[in-house]
Amino acid sequence: QVQLVESGGGLVQAGGSLRLSCAASGSIFTINAMGWYRQAPGKQRELVARITSGGSTNYADSVKGRFTVSRDNAKNTVYLQMNSLNPEDTAVYYCYAGEFPYGVRPNYWGQGTQVTVSS
Predict the structure, then answer these.
(1) C-alpha pair distances (Å), 20 with each of 3, 17, 40, 80, 92
(2) How far apart are CA 30 and CA 47, in angstroms?
(3) How confident is the model over 24-61, as pLDDT tens digits?
C-alpha cells in the first residue's frame, strides 16, 4: 500500500501562482508515475500532469506552459507548480500514484486539495 498526503492548495487571484506538494509513503518501490488530476464541480476528473520515475512528463493541453510537474525521488514527493492561474483552474486537485510498469492508471489517490482562483 501507498499513502499520499497533499498540501499547498488555497485561494489565489487570477494571474497568481500556487505550488502543490504530495508526499508518498509505504510501498513506494512499486510506483512508477506520480501526478495530479483535478475535478471541477459538475465535471469529470481529468489528468493535469504526470511524471514517471525516469522524469518523463505529460501535461493536459489546458495547462501546458503554465504548470510544471516535478519530482524529488529522495523525498518521495511530487510537486505541481501552477503559474498564471485563471478561474477555469478552480477545482479539487488530487495527487495520484501509478504502479509499474507504466503508471498510467492511478492505483492510489491523495485526499484532494481545493484550489480556488478568483477573477
Answers:
(1) 16, 10, 17, 5, 11
(2) 21
(3) 999 999 999 999 999 999 999 999 999 999 999 999 99
Q: How many CB atoms lie within 10 A of CB 103?
A: 22
- What secondary structure letter does DSSP report for 75? T
Question: Could you please report the per-residue DSSP string of 36-73?
Answer: EEEE-TTS--EEEEEE-TT--EEE-GGGTTTEEEEEET
Residues 98 and 94: their CA atoms lie apart, in Å, by 13
Tens digit of each residue's pLDDT (9 = 90 or more) over 79-100: 999 999 999 999 999 999 999 9
Rg (CA), the chain: 13
